[in-house]
Write a structure and sequence with these properties.
By secondary structure, the protein is of the alpha/beta class. The chain has two domains: 6-166, NAD(P)-binding Rossmann-like Domain (Rossmann fold), CATH 3.40.50.720; 186-201 and 242-374 and 397-495, Dihydrodipicolinate Reductase, domain 2 (2-Layer Sandwich), CATH 3.30.360. It is 34% helix and 18% strand. The protein has 17 helices and 17 strands. Strands 7, 8, 9, 10, 11, 12, 13, 14, 15, 16 and 17 form an eleven-stranded mixed beta sheet that branches. A six-stranded parallel beta sheet has the order 3-2-1-4-5-6, with helices on both faces. Strand 1, helix 2 and strand 2 (62-68) form a beta-alpha-beta unit.
Length: 505
């Protein structure tokens, strides 16, 4: 199929979806043998996409029939791997996902593209009559998340979010235990992303791999000068807000999803405030003039007020050994190395999601009283729902993904708006002292300061930024009294790659 513009593709996709409603493989109206293979296209096969391939290849109900990647070398290498896994049945390789969506052999799509492509890929797939598995964060901004929810409804597609902890056979019973009163009344959940991230180097003239189609890679994002990029092309986009959402939006949607789930929260927060910065890389390079190419926070604390409950998310990208976290070290069960998880604070104890497949329960004296372990059959859950055609069978719906990604986006918006508001530790303390919160905000600030100082950050010279306290209206999904904040709810799209509004689906 020749490359289509957005208007042409939408027209074609709507027609295809209408036809699928009558009779097609894509509808999964299984009048044929239940042993029919489900044809899958994997979009974005580098990195996380490799795990999508492995999961689908292990499901006997699935055949991987297409791989899509803007890097021809990577795509063909993975296609050879799939051929080995599928007894010689090699998937077709495409660089433009629209060509895969046009194929009648494709029933479902899974996407592990960079974040800026997630929503448009999912919507295009559903418009073409395909079910969709979309990696977290399911959207690059709030408006895209709402569009995905409505697209799944309009085109009657099964749409799963890649927050695989929702299918964890350890976390699911643990959440049920906690919600049944296992650790008493729970008002606070703390998400942790204490994950060491080195500098991605300064912006420079790093050649884009010759096998990469940079125009297609950029997609919905504004085109930049390909000579002004990051050193590690295929991963470090995470730390550039044009494409990624930092670790708050990379690791965050896993942990904030579990936090929301455990606290029983099915709305966006009412109020949000963030403080932090992209700090410490000067000390790491022993060069006070050094400027890292990333523009997302590597250290950030975001506080989310839900009225009678609260989520706090802490991002730390510098060295995370010890870092003055005695209580957290006890609860996580170790002091050194990365710490990624969620801590629930109950009136009768604590519950800790220590990994995707492990949950620990402590009493108030930090004595371990219960432990859950298990796997995460999340792709299997998606295929189950594709066959049953029942949305309620999904463990991670578009709404859940939208709300959890939204936590990250709202925290980032407060940080971005206050990025130039560099203030002293005392000024941050003063603002936090006036907040209603179920966390000890001062203790969290003190630990954050100690973490930065332990990593050689001179906060007098490189102070943290303090974002504004933002109020969010759940009914309209707009900010209250801040037109500036509303501008962050969407983005400027390139012509031909616009994510449609709900009204224009």
């Amino acid at each position: 199929m020749a490359s289509l513009n957005r208007r042409q593709f939408t027209s074609l996709a709507v027609s295809a979806a209408a036809g699928a409603a009558v009779a097609s493989r894509s509808s999964f109206a299984r009048e044929a043998s239940p042993n029919d293979m489900i044809g899958v296209a994997v979009i974005g096969v580098n990195g996380r996409g490799g795990e999508h391939i492995r999961e689908f290849a292990n499901d006997k109900r699935v055949e991987i029939r297409a791989l899509v990647d803007i890097d021809d070398y990577v795509a063909n290498k993975k296609a050879d791997m799939v051929a080995e896994l599928q007894n010689g049945r090699r998937p077709t390789v495409y660089s433009d996902m629209r060509k895969a969506f046009d194929s009648p052999d494709i029933d479902a799509v899974s996407t592990a593209t960079p974040n800026h492509w997630h929503a448009l890929c999912g919507i295009w797939a559903m418009q073409a009559g395909k079910d969709a598995y979309i990696e977290k964060p399911v959207c690059h901004n709030i408006t895209e998340g709402r569009a995905l929810i409505e697209a799944a409804k309009k085109y009657k597609r099964i749409a799963q979010v890649g927050t695989q902890c929702r299918s964890s056979t350890a976390i699911r019973p643990a959440i049920e235990f906690m919600q049944g009163g296992g650790i008493g009344e729970v008002k606070l959940a703390r998400g942790l992303c204490y994950k060491r991230r080195k500098s991605i180097s300064a912006i420079g003239d790093y050649p884009i791999p010759e096998s990469v189609n940079f125009d297609l890679w950029s997609g919905p994002a504004q085109m930049t000068d390909p000579k002004v990029t990051r050193k590690q092309f295929h991963y470090d986009w995470h730390w550039q807000r044009l494409y990624g959402n930092g670790d708050l939006g990379n690791q965050g949607p896993h942990q904030t999803d579990i936090a929301r789930w455990g606290l029983g929260l099915m709305t966006h927060p009412n109020q949000i405030i963030s403080y932090g910065g992209r700090l410490g890389y000067q000390a790491e390079r022993e060069d006070p003039t050094y400027v890292d190419a990333g523009d997302t926070a590597n250290t950030c604390v975001s506080i989310y007020d839900y009225g009678d409950k609260c989520i706090v998310f802490e991002t730390r990208g510098l060295g995370v050994d010890d870092s003055a976290d005695e209580e957290i070290n006890k609860l996580m069960g170790y002091s050194r190395g990365n710490k990624v998880g969620v801590i629930f604070y109950g009136s009768e104890g604590y519950m800790v999601q220590e990994s995707y497949g492990k949950v620990l329960v402590y009493d108030k004296d930090f004595k371990l009283v219960k432990e859950y372990k298990g796997g995460t059959p999340h792709f299997e859950n998606f295929i189950d729902a594709c066959i049953s055609r029942k949305d309620e069978n999904l463990n991670a719906s578009m709404l859940e993904g939208h709300l959890s990604a939204g936590v990250s986006h709202l925290g980032n918006i407060s940080y971005y708006m206050g990025e130039k508001n560099r203030v002293s530790n005392e000024e941050i303390s003063k603002v936090l002292s006036g907040l209603k919160s179920y966390d000890d905000n001062q203790a969290t600030l003190n630990r954050t300061i100690k973490h930065l100082e332990d990593n050689g950050v001179d906060l007098a010279k490189y102070p943290m930024s303090l974002g504004p306290m933002l109020t969010f209206d759940n009914a309209t999904e707009k900010f209250v009294g801040s037109s500036e904040a509303d501008t962050y709810l969407t983005r400027e799209y390139r012509k031909g790659y616009e994510v449609p509004s709900v009204e224009n689906l």
